[in-house]
Specification:
Elements: H1 2-32, H2 44-67, H3 77-96, H4 109-113, H5 129-153, H6 158-176, E1 189-190, E2 194-195, E3 198-199, H7 203-229, H8 231-241, H9 243-248, H10 253-279, E4 281-282, H11 289-302, H12 309-327, H13 332-346, H14 350-372, H15 397-404
Antiparallel strand pairs: 1-4, 2-3
Length: 408
């Protein structure tokens, strides 16, 4: 597994990981150690805002694993994101203790307000960070395992699978809105005080959360690269491109899909857990189907089936959303919608996918020009041994073969 991850790191993931690790180091330094009046100082609101964008990027990377590389268009990944967020929110609520409005050392404020007499059984253990961290991964992963097991064994594919994933997140939305469900109803969980004993509002904690998010995103990219660059990843892409043919060759397609779906759900849960302490609230609106559709848009804009595309799409779209809502409050929805339409029409492969395609065309033409001359492109050694001196004046048939090679 380590060798596979290193192989993935050397093939495209390395620059992304380097940038994210650099951000995890540089941003806290500029925020904490550079004076507020300095031009390089990063204010508190920017650290929290871009930390939120990085959690969205991790969610988009998770979706890209199943949609970009396996062909599963999930419209319910917001559910896994929200479940991870609720698991972290439950831990943060337990840390409040007697500092709440009603000063109850055991029950959260909303339970006291709703006249709950005792803590529900499913809240037990969330006073421990390590138990909560386990639930952040386990709960979304278990839901994805059960849901995927039945869906993929039944060979539900295409738009039908997308519809039932959307129905899943909508059902959870309705359930978590209920006050008697034990998760705060429509108000959700909020008023967090600290995490791991540190004040959640302090600059140092916010910087640490940003760094943790950047590192988690780097690990998510590494995991995706390791899966995609492995032999299993080749099967994953084969399922996306020709599922029936892959099944005919003897592969258990439902197992391939299920593995990718569960890993993706776990990554989405981690993104949700990092989102909550930086935003300060988690409520049922995170289950809204529109949120899951937004994740699809981020991935499509950046370029699916690429490592950096979902990150670029998530950050750019949310930056545009923040800018348009402030600069054009009455028309920001139309401007954002126009941006999506323009990308769909003019960049159907997304930003990074279109750039990669254009670069590939330029390289192919470059190679074709040198192939016609019987030469290797500069800085690109030929796969074949160099011809001997006696072969430099070949028969007229040799250039003809070189001319027809690019057309094949």
């Amino acid at each position: 597994m380590t060798a596979t991850m290193l192989k993935g790191l050397s093939r495209g993931a390395f620059p992304i990981v380097v940038v994210l690790v650099a951000l995890a180091v540089i941003v806290p330094i500029l925020h904490l150690w550079v004076p507020p009046g300095h031009a390089l100082h990063i204010p508190t609101y920017a650290v929290a805002l871009f930390g939120k964008y990085l959690t969205y990027a991790l969610l988009a990377v998770a979706l890209n694993l199943v949609w970009g590389y396996c062909g599963i268009l999930s419209l319910g990944h917001g559910a896994f994101f929200a479940l991870g967020g609720y698991a972290m929110g439950m831990y943060l609520m337990r840390q409040i203790g007697a500092r709440g409005v009603y000063a109850n050392p055991i029950l959260p404020d909303f339970m006291v307000f709703l006249n709950w007499k005792e803590l529900p059984w499913f809240w037990y253990g969330f006073d421990s960070f390590f138990y909560a961290a386990l639930m952040v991964v386990l709960i979304p992963g278990l839901l994805a395992l059960v849901f995927g097991w039945f869906a993929f064994r039944s060979r539900v594919t295409g738009v039908y699978l997308s519809i039932i994933t959307q129905a899943l997140t909508y059902a959870l939305l309705l359930a978590f809105f209920r006050n008697n469900f034990g998760f705060g109803g429509n108000n959700g969980l909020t008023d967090f005080k600290d995490i791991l004993g540190f004040d959640i509002q302090s600059n140092a904690t916010r910087s640490a959360l940003f760094a943790a998010t950047a590192i988690a995103l780097a690990l998510g990219v590494l995991v995706t690269a390791a899966i995609v660059r492995s032999k299993f990843g080749k099967v994953l892409v084969a399922v996306r491109d020709a599922e029936s043919r892959t099944r005919f060759l003897g592969y258990r397609v439902e197992h391939v899909k299920l593995f990718a779906f569960v890993v993706s759900a776990c990554m989405a849960g981690i993104a949700g857990a990092l989102y909550v302490p930086q935003v300060g609230i988690i409520n049922p609106s995170e289950f809204a189907p529109a949120n899951s559709i937004e994740v699809v848009i981020w991935t499509a804009v950046g370029g699916r089936a690429t490592l950096a595309g979902p990150i670029i799409g998530a950050v750019l779209v949310n930056l545009a959303k923040s800018y348009f809502t402030a600069a054009f409050p009455a028309a920001w929805l139309f401007l954002l919608g126009g941006l999506f339409v323009a990308v769909t029409l003019f960049l159907p492969r997304g930003i990074l996918g279109s750039l990669s395609q254009g670069f590939g065309i330029v390289v192919a033409r470059h190679r074709a020009v040198f192939a016609e001359k019987g030469m290797s492109p500069p800085h690109e050694p030929s796969d074949e041994p160099a011809p001997a001196a006696s072969e430099s004046h070949a028969s007229p048939a040799a250039p003809a073969r070189l001319q027809t090679a690019p057309a094949e």
